[in-house]
């Protein structure tokens, strides 16, 4: 398995799996909007996307993860938010997520980030175990809140 950083040339490969990721979380697929969203992130250098590919096939995507940069005012350093991670159904149980997250962790270290953050649903025990296996710890210091902007 190879992990590579996505570029605009990878959009055609990435978009179908990104759409499946959105559907997995109950969102409408919106393939054109999804492609436009990813294209903007890559073109504007607003996120880092890692792709997992088989060693011998550049046309098959096993999984991806997308990270967004943020900053910590308290530590005066960069923080990376592991916002999206998804593994194709036929590639599960092959440690794809582990490889993706290890690449993300390496990039975070190289950028001198103070930490990476990730969120998952409280009932997604599989994801929680994967995150914990590479060193993520549940945040006991801060409680997170969400403020929906649209609809109110």
TrEMBL record:
Entries under InterPro entries matching the protein: Acyl_CoA_acyltransferase (IPR016181), Bact_Acetyltransf (IPR050832), GNAT_dom (IPR000182)
Domain N-acetyltransferase: 1-152
Domain of life: Bacteria
Keyword terms, alphabetized: Acyltransferase, Transferase
SUPFAM superfamilies: Acyl-CoA N-acyltransferases (Nat)
GO molecular function: acyltransferase activity, transferring groups other than amino-acyl groups
Name of this protein: GNAT family acetyltransferase
Species, as recorded: Pseudomonas syringae
């Amino acid at each position: 398995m190879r992990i590579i950083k996505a570029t605009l040339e990878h959009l055609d490969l990435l978009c179908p799996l990104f759409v499946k990721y959105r559907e997995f979380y109950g969102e409408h697929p919106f393939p054109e909007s999804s492609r436009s969203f990813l294209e903007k992130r890559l073109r504007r250098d607003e996120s880092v996307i890692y792709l997992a590919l088989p060693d011998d096939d550049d046309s098959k995507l096993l999984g991806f993860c997308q990270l967004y940069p943020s900053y910590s005012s308290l530590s005066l350093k960069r923080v990376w938010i592991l916002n999206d991670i998804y593994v194709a159904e036929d590639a599960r149980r092959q440690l794809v997520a582990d490889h993706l997250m290890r690449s993300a962790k390496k990039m975070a270290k190289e950028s001198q980030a103070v930490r990476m953050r990730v969120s998952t649903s409280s009932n997604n025990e599989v994801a929680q175990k994967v995150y914990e296996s590479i060193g993520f710890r549940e945040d006991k210091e801060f409680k997170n809140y969400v403020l929906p902007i649209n609809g109110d």
